[in-house]
Amino acid sequence: MNTAHLITTPHKRIRLKDFDPAHKGKYKSEAHAQTRLQENVQRLAKYQDLLNADRSYALLIILQAMDAAGKDGTIKHVMSGVNPAGCDVFSFKPPTQPALDHDFLWRSYRELPERGRIGIFNRSPYEEVLVVRVHPELLASEHLPGLKKPGEKFWKQRFQSLNDCERHLVRNGTVVLKFFLHVSQEEQKRRLLARLDDPKKNWKFSEADLHERLLWDEYMRAYEDMISHTSTAHAPWYIVPADHKWFAHLTVSDIIVDTLKGMDLKYPSVTAKQRARLAQARKTLEAR
Which long-range contacts (CB under 8 A, 24 or more apart) does 201-206 make? Predict the structure, then answer.
């Protein structure tokens, strides 16, 4: 049973300080949870095969978090048993010029999974109401007509665009799961220091992480507003405690597996005509 906080009521104001990022549920330690995680890895592999065979649904997983919250590690551990041929991971970097010349959802359209596949967005179009909200000067590069200074109306319109897009996707067979990996400021500091202390992790460190860390409160307000306005019954946000990486991995895997199980996926049935052809194929193969 997962213990993430499921938010499904749009416009219900949430406060992140009400959610404990160090929560670890009934589990006392990583070792205690490891068996469950490995079971989920195996179950996910089974359900992925069913998803591919059924071809009625696609699964889109969105991961958002502050730096060093564990997005890459979550993908690595949770999806370790998945067939790479049926799963795509797209990491959203700062937009290139072609993306800036289109609407803010354009580049995400191009990476959406087709039916039968799992798509993972490491960051997502939600950066446009997070990073861009904290740094509104970035909007100048988007050359939006008539925009001078973005106010509340502007951000609410972006929230509505995200909600409308996800509603359309769900209507057409794409199941959307959105995870906010909720890490504390203290734990982020510890992880950033670990990157400095370990030569094998030095490459992960970016001075930009320090700059964005100074804007922690602004980011928390942006996340609260985003979750409050874009968590819906058809595409909810899950606030996942992430101070303990293993607990975040387990929680995300629980939710993904439970979601796939609830789709009632089936292998395609074979008609009498197809069975006759299969029987003939067997005779031909055995004869040779």
Answer: 206/67
Helix, strand, or coil (residue 205): coil
81 touches 42 (CB < 8 A): yes
CA distance 164 to 134: 23
Q: Hey, what are 79's tokens?
A: 């999806």
CA–CA dist 266, 154 (Å, integer): 43
Strands (E) across 162-224 are located at 174-182
Cβ distance 223 to 159 under 8 Å?
A: no
Q: Which amino acid is located at 103 in the chain?
A: D
Distance of CA 239 to the CA centre of its chain: 11
Name the residue among 215, 286, 249, 195 with its Cα closest to residue 71. Answer: 249
Helices 152-171 and 216-230: crossing angle in degrees, nearest 10, is 50
Q: Mention every residue, 6+ apart, whose C-beta is less than 8 A from residue 116.
A: 51, 52, 53, 54, 55, 57, 58, 86
Question: Rounded to whole angstroms, how far apart are CA atoms 122 and 256?
Answer: 16
Q: What's the CA gap between 36 and 83, in Å, rounded?
A: 20
**Per-run averaged pLDDT (10 residues), the chain, 288 residues:** 70 91 89 92 97 97 97 97 96 95 96 98 97 97 93 97 98 98 97 90 82 96 97 95 96 97 92 89 90
pLDDT of residue 1: 46
pLDDT in tens, 157-205: 999 999 999 999 999 999 999 999 999 999 999 999 999 988 888 887 8
Give the DSSP H/E element, type plus range, for residue 87: strand 87-91
> 50: part of which helix (H) or strand (E)?
helix 30-54
